Amino acid sequence: MRMSEGVEWAVHCCLLLDWMGEDRPVSTTRLAAGFELPPPYLNKQLQALVRAGIATSTAGARGGFRLARPLERITLMDVVAAIEGPDDAFQCTEIRRRGAGADSPESAFARPCAVFSAMHRAELAWRRALADQTLADVRANAERNAPRVGEHVRAWYARN
Amino acid sequence: MRMSEGVEWAVHCCLLLDWMGEDRPVSTTRLAAGFELPPPYLNKQLQALVRAGIATSTAGARGGFRLARPLERITLMDVVAAIEGPDDAFQCTEIRRRGAGADSPESAFARPCAVFSAMHRAELAWRRALADQTLADVRANAERNAPRVGEHVRAWYARN
DNA sequence: GTCTTTCTACTCGGATACATCGTGTCCGAGTTGGCTGGG
DNA sequence: CCCAGCCAACTCGGACACGATGTATCCGAGTAGAAAGAC
């Protein structure tokens, strides 16, 4: 069970869009250069962010991507759901009904599968932990590590 | 990010091994028949359980698999780690160091990546929730749904 | 009748193909900005 | 000097290959049990 690396890219791109400011959008080409990533594939992930309503895109010359709302209102859960999709990691196939359980009365399956319930509970804990952290929290932690990172990024883009 | 369905199979097989009792092992063929699963592939998952020390295998005629310890001492985390492997779902590739961050001083990267920290925190919540639930808890929940499931399973295997 | 030996059938275990999803790439439609020509 | 129209460059967006991981399968090594034969 490995999470798509597009999630990592998307979160870093959101932070970078915030540091670059809202005055002008940032194109896929420039974003990709900022992290040395393949531009077309990064574009695919950014499209997913747009579809999820996290970012907005403007076409044409001097176009690119903008954040749709401030980082305080974007959670890690939003980004993960946008890239990975809405499906749960653990998919119950109801094997309890097959084979030895095939001739059981229907009442035995009235309540959800115990295995699924247990796995689902753990997954809810994961999702809640993701939803409790906003990208503003992540930004604050990143700036605690490197206080001038925003300024540094803008300077790098000014000369590239 | 989809979890391998082998996890579901493994948990159900552990419960079934418990219901079948410890007096004699259950072979891959019989286990597969009990859930209508492809025997060779199920065997692969069971081997993973043996490697992880959750089950034991005995070869030869009348051989098969046994639980290595009671369900009270097997957590969902144990089974997931046995099937899915020890790697974390979110893999940090340190893209913060590339591109715009390439010319930053090394001190900026002294502490771990903020994105990784946030994702890792959520993943720890998931792992903890898995480790807090034993298979005995799952069995108790299953038997609350269908009280006579153990008896039912033994009867089915007696005539198949 | 009992023990030893052999043989057979059954079991696990790892090595081998196939399918699906994630990864990476490309090209076309649309839009913006700038340039040019005229008024 | 100002404005309108045209052109060109740049952008996103979806459609198209490649590779890796998960899924499914097969066959061989090893062992327990049973049966047969000798004592």
TrEMBL record, chains A, B:
SUPFAM superfamilies: Winged helix' DNA-binding domain. Gene3D superfamilies: Winged helix-like DNA-binding domain superfamily/Winged helix DNA-binding domain. Pfam families: Rrf2. PANTHER family: TRANSCRIPTIONAL REGULATOR-RELATED, WINGED HELIX-TURN-HELIX TRANSCRIPTIONAL REGULATOR, RRF2 FAMILY. This is RrF2 family transcriptional regulator. It comes from Actinomadura yumaensis.
